[in-house]
């Protein structure tokens, strides 16, 4: 925890009570308080966003029914008017699930409160509730639920978590790889709301849709401004973590433990106390939350004891006369979040110094992780919370559960969290059949619907079909014609840039449109193929077996012969040896050797590797992407060379590689060699240098070569290029005219919807763009300003997709129904992983017994509950616009 300077006893403290307060004075102040009037609610940005949506609907509705005074109309409190409003909404807007209308009604009530200075009357409220629960959905066939809300179980968690460490290529920066593991681990251990770990709703509105939405009327929003009262980011900072050694009577080593306080809890005022969770070092290193925390601390230089190293930290002891020994944080880092986002710098992606990791990147990563691990159902943060909630419910009292989940009563848990699946063998209990607990547990697990053969990447046939899509063909024709016209008029496409800018611009736009369309088609195709597989593969399998049983088929089943091995995906080759070693120590053959000395050695190695990995970033995978463009307009980059010949001159930089990538590569032996560009295509190297590096120069650039460490920062790019030319004999003929565009790129880059490379996709969730201002980016900036807003702006900024997205968010944070029981299946492969979930002080051998003991598998009476759902529509709509960070893998060249 924070190093709080002890308060000295203050003898000369000011004695306030000695001031005389006059009666008149106090009475006069009453007028002051009267003048304050009604205090408006300080809605949080997420709520404001929701109200803003309803506000727009309401004002449009009033225009439509020709009611000039929309406030008066709202305040009439006639329930028929509100019913009419929802009916109009249903008839004029995109299809929504029932839960969205519930959300709109809640927001409309808040909007009402702003004008009425009181709540909507109980009577009107009840009427609308009844309407929305009964008549409204029944008459319009509005679905009450759209998909299952799964809980995880320990088996699924272990599969996912392992898949993340071993297979996932979603993140290329080491810090995000480890941070995402931490998000999963903390979510699992604490069941905390995801928004507590990483701030929600920091995604910027999608500007690409601005042009498509034109609104006829302008209005001024009536919403109040959000005033932030908190000083700390919405994420766990060093000050929230108390790190200390505890004496372990059962071991000769003391255990490093942490107490983490989760602030920013829902329903509590900002700055109020949070909930504290205890975590301890674990002998299964993959699942050791402490190893991750101290790795971040080493990365950030957070320890007061600057000479502490990964070798030493695991060997410190609690002094005899004490029962614990805390490790203190440096005061400079107290308010720094541990989980942070990336920012784009001239040298590539680097960890931001203060801004927390974005919720969206974690959400997207989790979804991709589930799909990549071949689960049929998507995985979300709330699956973790529901899982913990159900486990806690099995083992703890109701009061303890409320405490853990931060809920004030049983109602929310029972209604939205409790598993729908009855995880007990009722045939055993009622009919007295032999118990089949193992079967029951597996039946309720998401693993049942996992299929390692499910497609996760596009096939060549898919890619060809996309290239032959009529819209793509049409756009390509258009682009060809424009190019031909420019060649005819100006003698070349490049030359037309100055002489025929309108043609060049149109050409450029069409090109971007093609990229966008391809991206969308690729996502749709991939998702359709996945759904199709899960739907049809079982049917084919049943047919196959029927044929076989009837003796009509002579092919011997592969699946039966290959056995369980086929379940394991091949372990990929890692770019960084650190990650390879981590995977080896987490999941390799020696991972279960708990001999004290060997464990200590592995612990130290894991910590060292993790600290190193936190600073590494894989190079852009752009070169691996499939080349869609047959015209050859795009870069044809060559694969990186495995081992470049060491240069003769230590300072000379070859002109077929990028000088900055080269500098980065030489900074650490773990970094791969820079990509070699074909000597014939020096223009693509130039483009790379400008777009990947020089365009991101903000205040000067320094040479990142080791030898130039002491050369001061260059004020501008030209000076840097001069240095490259003289000191490194590196001249790739970058003309000044290209550099002029740099500043332009700098401004456009971020809002550009045409970000194409994988790393740039990530930029949209992890860059300074979304981090400009945490509070501001939560919400349309105009809602935060005091000046009037115009409808043209505010309407476009929150498009329909966001309406449902925001309603999803808030329903999610309120409550979540669950669908599955949480079964525990024992299998040899997973057993070791299970061990992590039992306290370290438990004797190691007893772990297995514990897991299989009846109390552990005790299930509760569960209630089946049907719940309306919103997630599907929200997610699928939003996902179309979301970046496809794994695209390069899926589309890897044929
Ligand atoms: Zn480079
Ligand atoms: Zn240099």
From TrEMBL:
Biased-composition ranges, Basic and acidic residues, are 846-874
Output this protein's name: FluG domain-containing protein
Q: Where is the composition biased (Basic residues)?
A: 883-894
Q: Name one Pfam family in it.
A: DUF3435
Q: Region labeled Disordered — which residues?
A: 843-894
Top-level division of the source organism's lineage: Eukaryota
């Amino acid at each position: 925890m924070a190093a709080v300077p002890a308060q000295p006893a203050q003898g000369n403290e000011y004695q306030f009570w000695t001031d005389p307060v006059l009666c008149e004075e106090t009475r006069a102040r009453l007028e002051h308080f009267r003048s304050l009037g009604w205090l408006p609610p300080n809605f949080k940005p997420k709520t404001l966003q929701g109200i803003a949506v309803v506000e727009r609907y309401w004002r449009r509705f009033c225009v439509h029914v020709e009611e000039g005074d929309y406030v008066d109309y709202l305040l009439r409190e006639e329930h028929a008017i509100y019913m009419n409003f929802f009916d109009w909404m249903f008839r004029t807007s995109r299809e929504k699930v029932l839960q969205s209308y519930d959300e709109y009604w809640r927001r409309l009530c808040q909007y009402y409160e702003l004008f009425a200075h009181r709540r909507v009357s109980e009577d009107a409220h009840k009427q609308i509730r009844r309407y929305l629960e009964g008549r409204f959905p029944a008459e319009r066939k509005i679905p009450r639920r759209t998909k299952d809300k799964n809980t995880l179980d320990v088996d699924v968690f272990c599969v996912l978590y392992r898949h993340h460490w071993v297979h996932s290529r979603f993140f290329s920066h080491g810090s995000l790889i480890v941070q995402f593991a931490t998000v999963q681990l903390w979510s699992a251990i604490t069941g905390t709301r995801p928004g507590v770990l990483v701030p929600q709703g920091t995604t910027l509105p999608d500007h690409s849709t601005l042009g498509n939405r034109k609104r006829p009327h302008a209005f001024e929003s009536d919403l109040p401004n959000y005033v932030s009262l908190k000083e700390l980011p919405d994420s766990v900072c060093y000050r929230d973590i108390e790190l200390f050694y505890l004496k372990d009577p059962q071991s000769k080593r003391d255990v490093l433990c942490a107490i983490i306080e989760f602030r920013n809890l829902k329903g509590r005022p900002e700055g109020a106390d949070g909930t504290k969770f205890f975590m301890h070092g674990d002998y299964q290193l993959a699942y050791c939350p402490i190893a991750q925390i101290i790795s971040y601390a080493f990365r950030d230089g957070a320890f007061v004891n600057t000479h502490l190293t990964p070798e030493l930290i695991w060997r410190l002891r609690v002094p005899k006369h004490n029962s614990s020994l805390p490790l203190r944080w440096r005061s400079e880092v107290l308010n720094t979040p541990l989980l942070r986002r990336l920012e784009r710098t001239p040298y590539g992606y680097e960890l931001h110094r203060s801004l927390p990791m974005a919720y969206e990147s974690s959400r997207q990563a989790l979804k991709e992780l589930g799909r990549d691990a071949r689960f049929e159902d998507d995985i979300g943060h709330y699956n973790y919370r529901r899982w913990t909630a159900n486990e806690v419910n099995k083992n703890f009292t109701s009061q303890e559960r409320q405490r853990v989940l931060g809920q004030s009563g049983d109602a929310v848990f029972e209604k939205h969290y409790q598993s729908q699946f009855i995880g007990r063998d009722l045939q055993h209990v009622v009919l007295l059949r032999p118990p089949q607990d193992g079967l029951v547990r597996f039946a309720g697990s998401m693993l049942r619907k996992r299929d390692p053969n499910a497609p996760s990447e596009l096939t060549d046939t898919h890619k060809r079909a996309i290239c032959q899509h009529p819209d793509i063909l049409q756009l390509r024709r258009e682009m060809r014609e424009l190019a031909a016209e420019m060649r005819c008029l100006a003698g070349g496409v490049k030359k037309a840039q100055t002489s025929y800018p309108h043609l060049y611009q149109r050409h450029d736009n069409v090109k971007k449109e093609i990229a966008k369309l391809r991206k969308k088609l690729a996502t749709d195709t991939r998702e359709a193929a996945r759904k199709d597989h899960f739907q049809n593969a079982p049917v084919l399998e049943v047919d196959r077996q029927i044929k076989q049983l009837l003796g009509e088929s002579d092919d011997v089943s592969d699946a039966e012969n290959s056995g369980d091995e086929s379940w394991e995906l091949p372990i990929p080759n890692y770019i960084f040896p650190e990650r390879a070693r981590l995977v080896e120590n987490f999941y390799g053959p020696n991972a279960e050797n708990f001999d004290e000395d060997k464990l200590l050695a592995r612990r130290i190695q894991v910590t060292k590797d993790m600290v190193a990995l936190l600073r590494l970033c894989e190079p852009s995978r752009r070169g691996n992407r499939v080349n869609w463009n047959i015209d050859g307009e795009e870069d044809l980059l060559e694969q990186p060379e495995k081992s470049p010949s060491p240069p003769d001159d230590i300072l000379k930089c070859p002109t077929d590689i990028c000088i900055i990538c080269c500098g980065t590569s030489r900074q650490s032996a773990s970094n791969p060699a820079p990509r070699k560009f074909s000597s014939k295509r020096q223009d693509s190297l130039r483009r790379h240098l400008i777009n990947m590096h020089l365009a991101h120069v903000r205040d000067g650039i320094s040479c990142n070569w080791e030898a130039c460490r002491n050369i001061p920062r260059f004020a501008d790019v030209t000076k840097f290029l001069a240095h490259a030319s003289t000191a490194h004999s590196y001249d790739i003929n970058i003309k000044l005219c290209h550099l002029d565009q740099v500043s332009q790129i700098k401004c456009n880059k971020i809002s550009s919807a045409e970000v194409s490379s994988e790393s740039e996709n990530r930029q949209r969730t992890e860059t300074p763009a979304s981090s400009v201002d945490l509070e501001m980016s939560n919400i349309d900036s105009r809602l935060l300003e005091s000046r009037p807003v115009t409808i043209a702006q505010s309407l476009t900024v929150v498009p329909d997709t966001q309406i449902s997205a925001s309603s999803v968010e808030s329903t999610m944070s309120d409550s979540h129904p669950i669908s599955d029981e949480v079964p525990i299946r024992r299998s040899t492969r997973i057993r070791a992983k299970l061990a992590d979930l039992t306290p370290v002080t438990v004797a190691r051998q007893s772990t297995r017994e514990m897991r299989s003991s009846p109390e552990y598998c005790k299930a509760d009476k569960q209630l089946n509950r049907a719940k309306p759902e919103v997630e599907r529509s929200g997610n699928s709509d939003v996902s179309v616009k979301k970046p496809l960070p794994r695209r390069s893998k899926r589309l890897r060249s044929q």
